[in-house]
Amino acid sequence: MTPPPLLDVRGLTVEFTAPDGAAVRAVRDVSFTLRRGETLAVVGESGSGKSTTALALTGMLPGTGRITAGRVLLDGRDLAGAGEPLLRTVRGARIGMVFQDPMTALNPFLTAGQHLTEVLRAHGHGGRAARTARAAELLALVGIPDPRRRLDDHPHQFSGGQRQRVLIALALAAEPDVLLADEPTTALDATVQDQILTLLDDLNRHTGTALVVITHNMGVVARSCARVLVMYGGSVVEDGPTAEVLTRPAHPYTAGLLAAVPRLSAPSGTRLTGIPGAPPDLALLGEGCAFAARCPAAEDSCRTAAPPLLALPGGVRAACPPAKDRTAPPWTPPPPGPAARPAPGPVVLTAEDLRKVYRRRGRAGRKHPRTALDGVSLTLAAGETLGVVGESGSGKSTLARVLAHAHPADGGILRLRGEDITRPARRHRHTARREVQMVFQDPYASLNPRLTVGEIVAEPLIAFGLGDRAARDHRVTGLLRQVGLDPATAHRLPRSLSGGQRQRVGIARALAPGPSVLICDEPVSALDVSVQAQITGLLTDLQRELGLALVFIAHDLAVVRQVSHRIAVMRQGRIVESGPADEVCERPRHPYTRALLAAALSPVPGVHPSSGAGTGAPPAATAPAGSASRAVSA
Amino acid sequence: MTASAGTPVDTSASTPGPAAASAPAPRPAAGRRRSPYRAALSTPRGAAGLALTCLVVLAGVLAPLLTGHDPTGQSGQGLLAPGAPGHPLGTDDLGRDLLSRVLYGIRADLGVIAVAVPLGAALGCLCALLAAVHPAADTAVQRAFDLVLAFPGLILALAVTAVLGPGRLPVILVVALAEIPVFGRQLRAGILVQRGREYVTAARVGGTSPARLLTRHVLPNAADPLVVQFAVSLTVAVFLEGAMSFLGVGVRPPEPTLGNVLGQAMPYLDRSPHLAAGPLTAVTLLVLGLSLLADALNRETRR
């Protein structure tokens, strides 16, 4: 007989009240159990209700959110209807939480030690000296070197990864039975993500704390959790052992999501497969299966009644009645064949020894300027994609902005078809700008909220004085079709579009003046995995049709490898390695590239993607920074 | 009043790609969103504010129709109690009809603030635009704002009247002067915030000229706080005008304003408190109405 589960969630339903007074169900009938010491991943895309579920467990729903049905049993005690006093004794003491953004989750006025002792005091832990000792112990537990001394440091003195470690220490301070980590590594670089996941793994093994990791990243699931709960549109669609679910997905959504995850092992030129359509709008969701609208195997019954979770062999449960009689995989996505790519043409854009220095305010800032670009050279041919990878602060975004003339370069030469456009005269700047356009990372921030889609796309046409009104309208319609949007979208405001649609608008705007170079600064990193593939596919198609030269900047090596002809790896404002995409990923030369490859996560459980790339300790940690001093040209 | 937080949008705040969730609950018109200003005015708070403000403004505008008495016409019947025949609010010490003095006082007040606040707002915005052009201009404008802000409103008022003498013009000047830095700073901050936004960079890369960048992308998105500020400034102007007239450095008697009617009631406060009741009520209603309006606008535009 197995012991009763530690946490038993039954039929949890959470509703929000929309501004117009309608009730929106963000979580529908979610049930799962968690045993002591178990690791569970809750995976899903935006709007899947995964974070809301986590917040509902400890009664921390924001705003108008409320639990309308179901029970949350912690050791048999119901938390769903519990009052604030009981919940306060549970939060921290029984269920600890770690949030996504380590940069904003710590109070900048308090030291790490003060943060920790405050929590310890709240949970009635010993005297002052005992608390300080325990705080140092906790910092040591989460792997912060020299914990005694670091207690007196303020948050800004810790790196991003260390801050996340401090937050984990805070969550562990009262020795909870469950650690709830909501996207604990999303804001972190790949190498740091790897360290944090290792830490969570160790903590689970050594302290026996049950771990619930909420994430959108299949790689994190495969890496850190034994069991997985896949959520979509507020409901659980599949639930089972990670190894089983990730290798033999029973639900079409899980299968589609896995197919959409870019694999580092896929060679350059492989087309990503996405799930057609966009994640559902919770307010519009009917009674049926949330995925029915995008499901290739949907039957009529799927659209009318919510499918129950059915037990399948292998300990898996899937909310897909047709899956029960299915023997073949629910959905075989089109084989990831190589996309037809024409050979690159003549060189369009060259950069030689680009430099960019940011001088901060004040004397100290002037004395120690931050070098964002330190002698970057690259060439780009028509019809070619140059992938630029690097972690945060490596200068990738600065490079994009300098190439697109959004910021002036402080040194170096930029040539467009041999002509110097580094500091163009006012007259020539327009030509240079027309030829080099940019797609931005954040499809929310990069569209003016007050203009309609049509006005946004027409803006560059007006700015460059292209065509009269009728010609512009015609061109806008053509551009929207080209990026796969209904021309009727032109009259809508960006806020009524989904993330993928907005990114398409951003691409249409960039294409409007007929550029020959498109600089894409993290064009897919703010998008859901199932939508990512649509956008990268679109960019590849556009490149083929228009002969565009693309600079594709991203932090995810797997995406970059599939999209790019060549890859340049950036670190501290320099290109440390560059070469053909497959060459760089298969036979990395620079230790930093090897570290990046080693830290990349694969959605296949138990497989480390970089088996050929020298695993073990990340060389970046050991390699002195000076080893990157030789600037490589891409 | 719906709580501004807690729409389903918030639930996905911690997920990396808030794609679907941030498409808000579908509104009847998926295209143009409803004007936040109209939405603000239809909330109970906004409607109450609008009603109160309209009530006071109408009373002032329709003053000649609402009372037959000349606000400066004296009579032999001084200090009549409210309800006296022909004088619903009674008369003041010089036998002038109090109702007509209050109504004409509102009229005079409105005349001052309706000129002064838009003037101050326009000049302030102009300064902010100037500051947006060049860092040097920015520093100059900012320090000039500091200089004006260094004087409390009343000291400024006294300084101006010391030069110009009391009257309507100095009041307008003082109110406008006090509002210039407020609007200037507000707009400058808005411009700085919007200029850092990615869509402005996108427009710049898209070849948009600096002037068009400002008028099409930056200013429309920086304007919302100004509308709210306008409503707030109107209340401040009512106070400032009242205070100046009360102290006798504002609009010159015998022309009534809310401030000087109140000022003239002061010596009789112990015997005839009703003299002060009229102007006080008018000021209170006007300020309350404007504050409610400002608050409603603020809540809606910040969503």
Automatic annotation (TrEMBL), chain A:
It is found in: Cell membrane. Keywords: ATP-binding, Cell membrane, Membrane, Nucleotide-binding, Transport. InterPro entries: AAA+_ATPase, ABC_Ni/Peptide_Import, ABC_transporter-like_ATP-bd, ABC_transporter-like_CS, Oligopep_ABC_C, P-loop_NTPase. Residues 330-345 have a biased composition (Pro residues). Residues 9-258, 349-597 form the ABC transporter domain. The keyword Acetylation does not apply. The keyword Cell membrane applies. Residues 322-346, 607-634 are annotated as: Disordered. Residues 609-634 have a biased composition (Low complexity). CDD domains: ABC_NikE_OppD_transporters. Coiled coil: none annotated. Its main location: membrane. It is a peripheral membrane protein. Pfam families: ABC_tran, oligo_HPY. GO terms for molecular function: ATP binding. Belongs to the ABC transporter superfamily. This is ABC transporter ATP-binding protein.
TrEMBL record, chain B:
CDD domains: TM_PBP2 (cd06261). The chain crosses the membrane at residues 47-66, 110-132, 144-163, 226-249, 276-297. Keywords: Cell membrane, Membrane, Transmembrane, Transmembrane helix, Transport. It is found in: Cell membrane. Residues 106-298 form the ABC transmembrane type-1 domain. It comes from the Bacteria. The keyword Transcription regulation does not apply. It is a multi-pass membrane protein. Belongs to the binding-protein-dependent transport system permease family. This is ABC transporter permease. It comes from Streptomyces pyxinae.
